[in-house]
What does this fold into?
Amino acid sequence: MFDIDAEQVRQDCIVDKVKALELIGFQVAELLRIKEALEKQVCELIGHDKEGQQTYLFERYKVTCKTGVNYSLNKEEFEVVGKRLPACFNPVSVVQKYELNKKIIREAYLYGSAQDKKILDSIIVAKPAKLSVVIGAAS
It folds into this structure.
């Protein structure tokens, strides 16, 4: 009977912690929305309307406003009309990118030879990822 009580206490503790995390998540999201609105208001009041970064002094406060533009590429459209741009105005560059396939890494460590594992150890650095706990409603 003691084990059942201990298990119930453990489960109740988990539920309490999850509820607290859920509440904090909602509070953080609301605070981020408020922060973004205040930042926008400060930049508008200062008159910072240009792209870039500038620091302003107000009494004992040093306020740095950073604004910019995020660009994304419509790849399908670029494939159709991008070649018509002169090279000096073509903002797109194709780059070689190295990506690790986690599934292959796991399989290599499970089934690979000692030599394979040694090579992998020399070319891959593994470190723990940041802990993440996602709270959602149970179905």
